[in-house]
Amino acid sequence: MAYDTAMKSRCPPLDFTGLSAAWAPDPGFTTMLNAGGALATAIEPYLNRVMSEAARRLGKDKPALSNEIRMLVRQETEHYRVHDAFNQALYDQGYEGLALVATDLKAALNDQFRKRSFAFNLAYCVGFETYTLYLGQFLFGPGARYFQDADPRGVDLWLWHLAEEYEHRTVCHDAYTALVGRYPLRVWATIYVHHHIAGYRRRATAVLMERASRVERRRERGFARDLVADMAPRVLPAFVPFYDPRGVRAAPGMAEALDRYPEVA
User: Fold this and answer.
1) Residue 3 pLDDT
2) Cβ of 31: how many Cβ atoms within 10 Å?
3) What φ, ψ does residue 180 adopt, rounded to 5°?
4) Which segments within the chain are labelled E, that is strand?
């Protein structure tokens, strides 16, 4: 758990009417997050499906973990619901191609759920949550500068989302440890997640960059370099056998971000 209080599902009261796709000054930053938000609406329902199956398999053996899984599902449901509203603002500006990319990823993940083992699907969720955890560490830390002079609605969306990712950072990992526990599969799936999602992220980025200038394209690559340089050493400990995300400390500002938003009844 992230803090001394119980996990909560929160919902920031955000209205994205009139929000520009360029909601922050750095085009590389907004392109990366806009692409990620489009894909989140495909990934998070899949994650909920896998984790609901994990809760079913746990049964009454680990009631505390089962309760945390139910709260994770509630949090992720609010995440993709709010991202859907954000994405609609992008579609209204002519970026409807993002919806096609998300639909294709959703179909691929549904196919993966049906055809791959439960163990693989759960390991995939662990890998995905590993990357979102460290994305939050970057954007609450050295990457916070990219939020300067940004539309507060975009800022609130991502700070809320990533702070809750930190809050439930142990849940997928604990479920995997309890139900599967195979170290090589966890490592393989974490690598696989990166490469699997990267192809869809490139497609979403291409949609967003269709109208970008040459300068904006160069700046898009600049943010990506900053992100990779920060995240790569952070992620490395996740590849050791006894990795436990409990050891990751909350970045400054996360608790305050969560306290700002009302709990969903």
Assistant:
1) 40
2) 25
3) -125, -70
4) none
Domain with 131, as residue range(s), is 27-259
Which amino acid, residue 97? G
Query: For residue 11, is it within any domain?
Result: no
Number of Cβ atoms within 10 Å of the Cβ of 252: 10
For residue 253, tell me if it sits in a domain.
Answer: yes
- Burial of 140-172, coded b for 16+ CB within 10 Å and e otherwise, reads beebeebbeebbebbbbbbbbbbbbbbbbbbbb
- Residues (pLDDT < 50) of the chain are 1-4
d(CA 254, CA 77): 20
Residue 3 lies in a domain: no
CA–CA distance, 34 with 208 (Å, rounded to integer): 8
Q: Is residue 154 part of a domain?
A: yes
Name every residue whose Cβ is closer than 8 Å to that of residue 14 and which is 6 or more positions away in sequence.
82, 85, 86, 153, 156, 157
Q: How many domains does the chain have?
A: 1
Question: Cα 41 to chain center, whole Å?
Answer: 10
| Among 110, 112, 122, 120, CA closest to 72 | 122
Predicted pLDDT of residue 262: 82
Q: What is the separation, in whole angstroms, between the first and last Cα of the chain? A: 20
